Amino acid sequence: MDALATPPTEAVDRxxxxxxxxxxxxxxxxxxxxxxxxxxxxxxxxxxxxxxALCALLxxxxxxxxxxxxxxxxxxxxxxxxxxxxxxRLPRILAALLVGIAFALAGAVFQSTxxxxxxxxxxxxxxxxxxxxxxxxxxxxxxxGALVSLSAFGGAxxxxxxxxxxxxxxxxxxxxxxxxxxxxxxxxxxxxAWLLARADVREAQTALHWTVGSIADVRGDDLAVLGIGVAxxxxxxxxxxxxxxxxxxxxDHARALGVGVxxxxxxxxxxxxxxxxTATSVAGPIAFIALLAPAIARRLVDDGSSALxxxxxxxxVLTLGADVVGQFALPGLTAPVGIVTGVxxxxxxxxxxxxxxxxxxx
Length: 362
Description:
Helix content is about 80%, strand content about 0%. The chain is mainly alpha-helical. Helix 5 crosses helix 6 (about 145-165) and helix 5 runs antiparallel to helix 8. The longest helix is centred in the N-terminal third of the chain and has 51 residues, at about 10-60. The radius of gyration is 24 Å and the shape is globular.
């Protein structure tokens, strides 16, 4: 019996050799669960978006039944139904989805790259710069249409460049970027308020409506530019998203993994600024989507990642849902989508500030 027994040293060697295999199996199981959970979040979010889109198609002053909506979507039905569906309601739905995706992706990139849950285009001044550019075009230059959108895009990019120039000290550091951005947000907001105060009442009303954020008039060429711009930049974010995970664990660890920290951070933030500028140039600075959507998505996915896909879906659902609520929640009163998101996002921001302060004290 002793001759047939396994020597103790051989048993120990087998035990040690099996540990890497067990660890690999455990890691594979965790990754499989994360993928299933992400797929579930995306599918449920897509289903909610479809339900909201159907509500937006059915409700309104020209109330349509489901069979009339389906007939219009497939090219049948009378001309009035097709006009209501294709010229009024469907462009607004598509605009809400695209704007939500753009702001949510931008917020996820900002928060992951700068490792700060408060790093949002709303707070960092990017959206405020776009608003200032649009107000300057409306009230100072006296232009309208596409030139307002172009000026808003330029304002967002200019503010981002100023933040970079002021925050760069032998590299781009997250906390300095955030502080400079918050300061510029106040400067842009104060300048907009001053321009509105000195403007004619009718011109100021138009400019103020734009700065609130609305997707009611996004159609035609604006919708095409929005769709192409968001699609192109979102593909760029997806291509370079592999460096988000190393950046989120710190610069030293990222460098140890072979990531060029400064170059990767600048490139990702440029893509995020392009998303914000594109969305804001046609819809205005819709508040808090970039702050809320990534935070909700990360909690739903709960795998420690940037949750880009889930953020995009949550952003689309939040924006479309806010637009539906703004249109139909209160009879006889229509609120722009930016008002609704502001009402939802302000309490969350206060809660986030309170919890962040408690964590820093502990």
